[in-house]
Amino acid sequence: MKSKNNLLYSIGVDLGGTNIKAAICRSDGKIFRVLSLPTEADRGPAHVVAQIHSAIERLLSKKNFLAPITGIGVGAPGSIDHEKGLVLHPPNLPGWKKVKLAQELSKRWNLRVNIENDANAAALGEAYFGSGKNRAHFIAITIGTGIGSGIILDGNIFHGEKGFAGELGHISIDYNGPKCNCGKRGCIEAYVGNSYLIAKALDERSSHPDSLLNRKAFGKTQRAANREMSVRDISLAAKRGDVFATHVLYRAGEYLGMALGNAAVLLDVTTFIIGGGIAAAGKPLFDGINASIRRNVIKPMRARIEILPAQLGNNAGVLGAASLFF
Amino acid sequence: MKSKNNLLYSIGVDLGGTNIKAAICRSDGKIFRVLSLPTEADRGPAHVVAQIHSAIERLLSKKNFLAPITGIGVGAPGSIDHEKGLVLHPPNLPGWKKVKLAQELSKRWNLRVNIENDANAAALGEAYFGSGKNRAHFIAITIGTGIGSGIILDGNIFHGEKGFAGELGHISIDYNGPKCNCGKRGCIEAYVGNSYLIAKALDERSSHPDSLLNRKAFGKTQRAANREMSVRDISLAAKRGDVFATHVLYRAGEYLGMALGNAAVLLDVTTFIIGGGIAAAGKPLFDGINASIRRNVIKPMRARIEILPAQLGNNAGVLGAASLFF
């Protein structure tokens, strides 16, 4: 990353299953322009690529943009073939088997293009501009439907053999535990992934008749009305002091702390940055993680453990993708 | 490592709780001279250092050794301060809190000295001269009283923040599992570490009256006579077709495969090299690991998994330590 006197500009694209977010970012972490378009993934790969083109076009044409753009960085779901710039089998983009995204974008925009897995892009964003600044090693975890993570070792993303490193959601904490979508038992995703967490809370709430979570459409969000309960409802209830909701989040933190403890003893990496859905719930989740991970690492690591909230929120993806050119 | 035409020689020392093994090694992996002295750890750090000096002296004086020695590499138990060349709190060397081993050795021998954790040294040995050749990433696991491991990423030992990386024995496979010496529950060490494995087998053998393991001092080894049962007895019985002994080893492999599955999903590292005590038992253990790890990784990793026996046996430590100067 260059000094303030020599600021660079690049485009960061965060390709999600629902929205495409794109931004012109500066190498000091400032987001210069940002916009969001629907992915419309059901219309197939060619349409999604056209949507990305359209997002970039709007960014650049908004008014004359004079500074040179050093490249386009993309955070995409699924597995990435870094050499060839391919996006392979993203789980939430139907019809994408093997898309030559780097080639498509570089041809159209005559710019260098670099693609990174979305969890890794978010970790890079935190590494450059967020909670990971000044830390050589950390793991950035995003809690959502799945649990993704990006592993930063010696300041760089660690990809592993074929780019699948960071599948922290599939660390098992109990070989006899509940079955995960992946086929394995006891994966941490099967305890704290959004849908599992909500299913468990729905199952248990009748034993807690006083809980706000028994009121239909609590929080009056659209999602709550549609789906009985959302992660946001649980957070909101906990913030209002609801004991059951607080317990659900604390327990999720405890489970997560067990998986993070396994990662810590293996790698002697003791900084974990937590973002995504239930991370916004704050204290109960973080208290649970902190208590549990300290019980689940070897003694010389205990005092060094730090569990930090992600700082960049929804912007981690575009900033991290853009940082591929800083 | 230099080419055949430019062979280097260095000294590798493997400092164990019972024996000190030292060797002059050549950069093509040939062990030129080797000897072993008792550590006599109960006589305190100064005596142990004197024993290391004595081992090196005997190596060098055996006959005139003409080729220049490039340095002394040491594999030591405990945590290593690499910058200062300190050995910190090795669990099986009583009285060692902080020993300036590098300084002591370099002063006496006027050679460069490099110290590495013993599990890491064994991993380096396998990386240079054993099962890890031509593999960028792997984890080398040594099964003994404890379960140690050395993690090779991009061809180098990964140390983590403070040198504790590789504590794979404390990956938990069941947060409600048996209590480990470290205080955590369900650590893989508490399933397959020698003493736990033997305790379980002793506990269960009466339900298997036909098993050879019910015969006192089976295998007629000293250890068997002294302690009722040794890991070697279990291996030996399995080799003779004993069903119960075979089951004990297969099950140990299954447990280990669960922990290795957790490491694999986190790092996308799919090569594991297994050495130490029960690894010598061969097929039943490896069959158990292979079956279990494939059930415990995500699908895209499954076909790439390889579980390899360590090739260098007891020489991995001295060769890996010596390789710090190749």
List keywords for this structure.
13 strands; alpha/beta; 36% helix; five-stranded mixed sheet; homodimer; 326 residues
Distance between the termini of chain A: 5 Å
Poorly predicted runs of chain A are none
Major sheet summary line of chain A: 5 strands, mixed
Physical arrangement of strands within the biggest beta sheet of chain A: 3-2-1-4-8
Count of DSSP strands of chain A: 13
> Helix and strand string of chain A, N-terminal first?
EEEHEEEEHEHEEEHHHHHEHHEH
* Rg of chain A, Cα atoms, Å: 20 Å
Helix percent of chain A reads 25-40%
User: What percent strand of chain A?
Assistant: 15-25%
Coarse morphology of chain A: globular
Q: Indicate the multimeric state.
A: homodimer
Counted by DSSP, the helix tally of chain A is: 11
Mean pLDDT of chain A: 91
Largest interface, with counts of residues having CB < 8 Å to the other chain, equals: A-B, 45 and 45 residues
Structural class of chain A: alpha/beta
Task: Please outline what is shown here.
Two copies of one chain form a homodimer. The first copy, chain A, contains eleven helices and 13 strands. With 326 residues, chain A is an alpha/beta fold.
Describe the secondary-structure layout.
Two copies of one chain form a homodimer.
Chain A: E1 9-15, E2 19-26, E3 31-38, H1 45-61, E4 69-76, E5 79-81, E6 86-88, E7 98-99, H2 101-109, E8 113-117, H3 118-129, E9 138-143, E10 147-153, E11 156-157, H4 189-192, H5 194-204, H6 222-227, H7 231-239, H8 243-267, E12 271-276, H9 283-295, H10 299-302, E13 306-309, H11 316-322
Parallel strand pairs in A: 1-4, 4-8, 9-12, 12-13
Antiparallel strand pairs in A: 1-2, 2-3, 5-6, 6-7, 9-10, 10-11
Helix pairs in contact in A: 3-11, 7-8, 8-9
